[in-house]
Inverse folding.
């Protein structure tokens, strides 16, 4: 009986070792090498470079609360927003009072930051995405914030609107998804535009920082 067990155990252990080396070491190393050779930026996390630093990735959003910046979607990740190690939605159902309370709080914050704006608030500004990491907002959500950002930065609305248009991404392959605006890229461009127009000191901004 022991001989039979030994006979069956040996090929199982050999297969385990073989596939561990093949799929756990060789395959990841080859794929990583190919990715770094063909898509070096994407393989390193799609990091954004600005003024010799990396303020973030264009794949992961950041929270913004300063009126001079475009605000992102809310994030339900814990223990802090846009935690890439804990991607998750709120999982609150449409009849859950907690969802209504969270949405109302976001509406009040948006109204307080721009009290003269009576336009309907786009839904993606008051609800979290399924991942909690979405770096984009809809063009409608960006449009809603243009007047507030322009006023806070003492820029013409036309200039801010042109920036939004420049950073509005079309559907992938012209078919997949919806048009969207990358918030971090747009805010970095806003900082650059403000510095160009008024100088670094007058812009009252040292660039986008996590949590602004």
């Amino acid at each position: 009986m022991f001989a039979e067990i030994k006979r069956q155990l040996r090929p199982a252990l050999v297969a385990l070792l073989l596939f561990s080396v093949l799929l756990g070491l060789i395959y990841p190393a080859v794929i990583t090498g190919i990715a770094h050779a063909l898509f070096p930026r994407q393989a390193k996390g799609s990091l954004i470079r600005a003024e010799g630093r990396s303020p973030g990735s264009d794949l992961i959003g950041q929270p913004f609360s300063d009126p001079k910046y475009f605000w992102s979607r809310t994030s339900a990740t814990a223990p802090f927003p846009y935690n890439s190690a804990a991607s998750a939605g709120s999982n609150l159902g449409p009849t859950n009072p907690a969802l209504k309370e969270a949405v109302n709080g976001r509406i009040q914050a948006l109204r307080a930051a721009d009290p003269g704006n009576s336009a309907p608030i786009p839904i993606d500004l008051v609800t979290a995405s399924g991942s909690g990491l979405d770096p984009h907002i809809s063009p409608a959500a960006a449009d809603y914030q243009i007047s507030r950002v322009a006023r806070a930065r003492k820029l013409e609305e036309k200039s801010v609107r042109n920036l939004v248009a420049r950073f509005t991404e079309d559907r992938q392959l012209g078919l997949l998804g919806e048009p969207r605006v990358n918030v971090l890229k747009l805010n970095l461009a806003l900082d650059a535009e403000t510095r160009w127009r008024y100088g670094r000191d007058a812009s009252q901004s040292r660039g986008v920082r996590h949590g602004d």
Summary: Residues 1-44 form one domain. The CA atoms of residues 163 and 189 lie 7 Å apart. The radius of gyration is 24 Å. The first helix runs from residue 2 to 38.
